[in-house]
Protein: Tetratricopeptide repeat protein
Organism: Hyalangium minutum
Amino acid sequence: MCMKKLGRVGLVLGVLTLTGTVGCSDKPDPAKEARAKATNHLNKKEFKLAIEQYELAIQADPNSEKTWKEKAFAHQQVGEHQKAAEALIKYVEVTKDPNVKRDEMYRVIADEFRQAGQPEDAEKALVKVLDAKESAAEKAELWRVIADQYLKAGNLDVAEAKFNEAVKLNPKDEASLGWLAAIYSKRGGVESKDGPAVPEHLDKALAYLDQVIALNPEYPFTYINKRIAVAKYAMHEQNMAKISLQEAKEAKKKAIADAAMARATEHDKRAQEFQKQYEELTAKFTETQKKFKEKQAAAAAEAAKQAEAAAAPK
């Protein structure tokens, strides 16, 4: 399925400024000593050794926000996403820095849980962001991000429920409607060329796709998505027509044969209707794609013009 990207889910912690020295003191500070050793290991990219020292530093001082943040970074580097998320949660809990953007941090936490294969925990993190939002559009966007966690985990049922939460808040949420269409297209059998079609799911997919087209008729790839579903439906009707014809041939009673022939005629009619839709969608895609590319090219040219004007000497 050709879908619009949902947008980047989660953020990257980035390169931290890693410094750590042991100050001169009559009394040794085990937290500072351990953290200084951890920093040295981190600078050498000895992440496992750094984590060991961060654990010791936390035992001595569990409220050191810098230790939790750097520990999370080290876990990220070795792919320990659950532990990275848990360390970041502690960082958000203990930090007193008013400049920390908690929304962004919870998105990072959610993405780490997602990579760890824990969409439920990712949802909990994003709900904390959701609680701070006021506008329906912002909340709908976050439900879409939550849905994406489950979608990537392969849990279509929960993903569908979360996309529906987004649509409740914003009935014109084009992206959520598009992903609901994708879910029902998948259930309808579009991903398997020779697999059976499930008409009731294809009907729902087409209904969602029609809503997306109504909201944004200029986006070309929705027509492709609808064409894929229509093609699957056409094949289904053709197969049903063949089955009904065979039943008519094998029927020993005229009434049964006539009923089977009637079904064959109806399935064949529907197959032809879907074939016509397929051709219309192909033409519509070609038309809208041309305009879409022209619009993109014009926007790129305008951006280049503005950049050139901004760089010109005054």
Summary: Residues 4-12, 14-24 have pLDDT under 50 and may be disordered. Residues 254-311 form the longest helix (58 residues).
